[in-house]
Amino acid sequence: MPLGRLPAWLLLAPALLLLLGMFLVPIGWFLVASLQELGSLAEILEEADAVLLSGAVGGALINTLWISAVVTALVLVIGYPVSYAMSRASGLAFTLLLLCIVLPYFTSTIVRTYAWMVLLGRNGLINQLLLGLGLVSEPVQLLYNRTGVIIGMTYVLLPYMVLTLYAAMKAVDMRLLQAAESMGATPLQVFARVFMPLTLHGVVAGVLITFILALGFFVTPALMGGPGDMMIAMLIEREVELTQNWPGAALMTIVLLVVTLILYGLYSRFTTDEKGAMP
Amino acid sequence: MQAVALEGVTKRYGAETVVAGVDLAIPAGEFFTLLGPSGSGKTTTLSMLAGFVQPDEGRVMMGGRDMTRVPPRGRGLGMVFQNYAIFPHLNVAENVAFPLSVRGAPKAEIESRVAEALAMVKLTGFEKRYQRQLSGGQQQRVALARAIVGHPAVVLMDEPLGALDKNLRYHMQVEIKDIQQRLGMTVIYVTHDQEEALTMSDRIAIMERGRIAQMGPPREVYEKPESSFVAAFLGEANLLPVTPEGAAARGPGGALIQAGAGSLPGKGGLAFIRPEKLSITAGLADAAPNALPGRVLHASFLGNTMRYEVEVEPGRSVLCDTANAAGAALHAPGADVTVSWNAADSRFLAG
Q1: pLDDT at position A106, please?
Q2: Does A194 touch chain B (CB under 8 A)?
Q3: Structural domains in chain B, sorted by start
Q4: Is A278 on the interface with B (CB under 8 A)?
């Protein structure tokens, strides 16, 4: 039964109200109230200049972009073959793969992060294994530095990439690959000239969603990173909790929000493209 | 020269034998059709020719070479797929160029071959279009151009016209046939449309449950079916139950039936006769061989023909097609008529 515009909006209304009440109103109120503390527009701009050009914000922003980029690249490299296997698997194999990918999702981020800390610590499983095999002579520092942050975030973000890629790969008509093969294409050519281009929009969508999510990460870098791994979300939290500098936090929030919205704009362009395939 | 041959090819999926010991020999330049209902094994047979499916037994020969274990890309075939399999991320020219470019052909050669193939299917000027900008018939032409661009000796076609409307299908039949003859290609064509098979083929193999029920030129398989399955699958057929009596037989109402060919087992069989070979005359004629008195049940006007359904005994009727020619007499439902035919136009079938 086709729904008119009005009923569709009615169905969306509960979700929209929730979003309005729980997200837009609080963040709007936070931003307005915090910035009003500073006084006039000129004073706000002056403060913005000072805060945003300060070393702390610049450093955190660079950290955030760099960590997000590395994590996104890793997630893509690890996720692409997994998604491919999932899109070709059926029955029990598919169910097992899906469970492996999705099950950790149902555990809280904090629990998962602590589990990684057990694995990666100085006396953790991984270091014991490396020492036992004689690959290293002393424990490797895997926690409380950039390595720890990247490992932790890659793990948490992997399902988003895998599920996005899976959807794109599942939509590829297998008969096209068969056709390419019958036309003389080698397996590598079938992949590079047919499969890859047909899943490229999924790659772009997966990269954007992973990057967007990585930008706002807080728990994992806070628990698994060191002092040099301050990300923008952690800085915002510190401004609010520690230094009680609400106007400063508000200004940084705006920066994060703007970057995120720009990327989100790109993301929705790629995911709502009519055919889902790139011309 | 023999282009393609299947030798005792068998394929099983689990307990089910989909193709059972098929033998085929197709000479170069022939338009050969695999015809059968769905599930008869014709598509599996084609897939084994293409190399997508490995036979469990038997050999696939091409140009005298054993190709049974050669992967699809090593067989050098052109192929038109049922759903066309146009690459959506490539434009028409790139699609048609695909078989050449994956083999690393020089750019100049690709360009001239693509232009030639597109001209042949009348798609010159569509080079830059994408699949979503093409009609069904145009997509079909792209698929055809891509199959012939490398001038393969053998082209496989899997129900290529199935998705087109009737008018367009007829045009494409003529064009495919024309291109096949111009390039001297061997075409192996799969269809479930008997009319298409009859129109286009040099020879037809009618498949039934994984086996070739009969193989021969269209006219031969149409007029001389060797089983009731073939008779009924290729168009309308009257199949009258008869019991043997000497060289002839007794049919409905005890009428004497003679046939030009075929033989009957002792327990009886069927007399086969096409509706268009029957003549219909008004009134109940005296008893004579191959003449059945009856009553018109339905008279359908089909444009160039009239189709009568004539009840020749309670619960049994025959179809009779007569040309709607100048001055043709019409018979109204309920009228008493006699249908008759020449013994040479009918055959006895075992069943």
Answers
A1: 82
A2: yes
A3: 2-223 (3.40.50.300), 236-349 (2.40.50.140)
A4: yes
User: Please, are residues A63 and A231 in contact by the beta-carbon 8 Å criterion?
Assistant: yes
Residue closest to A257 by CA, chosen among A249, A269, A245, A246:
A249
Q: Is B318 helix (H, G, I), strand (E, B) or coil?
A: strand
Distance (Å, whole) CA B268 – CA B250 = 9
The answer, yes or no, to whether residue B265 has pLDDT greater than 80, is no
The answer to whether residue A33 sits within a structural domain is no
pLDDT at B167: 85
Helix A146-170 / helix A55-88 crossing angle, nearest 10 deg: 40
What is the four-CA torsion angle of A69, A71, A76, A77, rounded to 10 degrees?
A: 110
B85: contact with A, CB 8 A cutoff: yes
Write the ipTM.
0.79
CA–CA dist B7, A22 (Å, integer):
72
Note the pLDDT tens digit of each residue in B182-236: 999 999 999 999 989 999 999 999 999 999 999 999 999 998 998 889 998 988 8
| SS3 category, B11 | strand
Q: List the single residue in A179, A182, A278 with the smallest CB-CB distance to B89.
A: A278
Tens of pLDDT, residue by residue over B85-132, are: 999 999 999 999 999 999 999 999 999 999 999 999 999 999 999 999
Question: Hey, which residues does B243 pair with through a beta bridge?
Answer: B250
Range of the domain at A181: 48-272
Query: Model confidence over A24-45: pLDDT tens digits?
Result: 999 899 888 888 888 888 888 8
Closest CB from A181, A183, A275 relative to B88 = A275
The strand pairing partners of B191, in sequence order, are B35
Biggest CA–CA distance in chain B, Å, is 78
Q: Check if A204 contacts B (Cβ < 8 Å).
A: no
Q: Do the domain assignments include residue A112?
A: yes
How many alpha carbons lie under 13 Å from residue A132 in its C-beta half-sphere? 7
Chain B residues with CB under 8 Å of A186 CB are: 73, 102
**What is the pLDDT, as a whole number, of residue A5?**
67
Please give the tally of structural domains in chain A. 1
Cβ of B99 and A183 within 8 Å?
Answer: yes
- Kindly state the tokens that stand for B68: 């049974």
